[in-house]
Amino acid sequence: MSAIFHFSGMLSVLLLLICTCAFVRSVVPQLLDTHRTGWKGVFWKMARIGERLSPYVAAACIVQAFVVLMGI
Question: Which segment of the chain is annotated as a signal peptide (predicted)?
Fold first, then answer.
C-alpha cells in the first residue's frame, strides 16, 4: 500500500515535504523563489508554511514521531 492511502502516512509525507522545502529555501533561496507559480510553486508554498508556522510544524513532527514510534 502506498503512504498516500493512509492518513498517518499521508501526514508524514506532508510534514517531511514541508520541512524539506523550508530547509532547501533556507540554504538555497533562489532555487525556490524563482518558481512562485505553476506546479513548482507548490514547493515554494510548502516552504512558506514551514517558515511561518514553524512552531506548529515542529509540534506536529514531534507528535507524528511519537505516533510512528509507539505504533498508535
Answer: 1-26
Instruction: Give the residue among 24, 2, 18, 22 at the shortest CA–CA distance from 64.
Output: 18
Q: Within 10 A of 39 (CB to CB), how many other CB atoms are there?
A: 7
pTM: 0.79
The pLDDT tens digits of the residues spanning 3-14 come to 567 787 888 888
Grid coordinates given for 21? 522545502
CB atoms within 10 A of CB 50: 22
- Nearest Cα to Cα of residue 54 among 32, 10, 21, 31: 21
Tens-place pLDDT, residues 48-71: 888 888 889 889 889 888 988 887
C-alpha cell at 14: 506532508
